[in-house]
């Protein structure tokens, strides 16, 4: 007997409206190796921040994405929101986006937003952990997403997550507890979150701890494997 495994409730809803709707279906969200993706210690964090931003990194609020530089990952929306902050707050923000190097057109789009020096594009990276170690917030502001490994990896490293409500992304985050959920393509909805963070940056540590705790209990690899194995066993017995 065939059986559908969906990686999110959002994907399940798509299957429910497809030719596969009559098949048995189970939602099993991606597991993350929470030993490999774990919070960086203070010395590693400082070293990674210094490598990216120089010695004046201590007062920065760093937002990081490892989802790539395609437009539909929403990073331009974050830059647009940052551009609306008062100058004294804007200067404390850095946005790091790992992925394919920017084309000339994308670089022009960044330049047009008017946040010179605030966006860092390290290119393709083999290991995202050093980059995430330098960050205070992980973000995934995609326009479409099944669930997002990148979001879960950032949260496992103890970063609160700023996500869009697209697809399965909001299934990762409890708004106001371990991250924030905003509409996609909406810089105006991101701005109040940025303002809150800039006015009360101490919330980041508390929310980061909540993100890590959720990762350990809900994102860990062992339950993911056990649930997947159980579905396969049930299919084999049927």
What would your notes on this structure say?
- The strands form two sheets. A six-stranded parallel sheet has the order 5-4-3-6-7-8, sandwiched between helices.
- With 238 residues, it is of the alpha/beta class.
- The N and C termini lie close together (6 Å).
- It contains ten helices and eight strands.
Features of the shown structure:
238 residues, alpha/beta, 6-stranded parallel sheet, two-stranded parallel sheet, 10 helices, 43% helix, globular
How are the SSEs ordered, and which strands pair?
Blueprint: E1 4-6, H1 9-16, E2 25-27, H2 42-53, E3 61-65, H3 75-83, H4 87-90, E4 93-98, H5 104-113, E5 119-123, H6 129-133, E6 137-140, H7 149-156, E7 161-164, E8 179-182, H8 187-199, H9 203-219, H10 221-237
Parallel strand pairs: 1-2, 3-4, 3-6, 4-5, 6-7, 7-8
Helix pairs in contact: 3-8
- Please tell me how large the radius of gyration is: 19 Å
**How far apart, in Å, are the first and last alpha carbons?**
6 Å
Assembly state: single chain
What value does the average pLDDT take?
A: 96
Estimated share of beta-strand residues: 5-15%
Globular, elongated, flat, extended or rod-shaped: what is the shape? globular
Secondary structure category: alpha/beta
Widest β-sheet, arrangement of strands: 5-4-3-6-7-8
Biggest sheet details: 6 strands, parallel
Number of helices: 10
Order of helices and strands: EHEHEHHEHEHEHEEHHH
Poorly predicted ranges (pLDDT <50, ≥5 residues)?
none
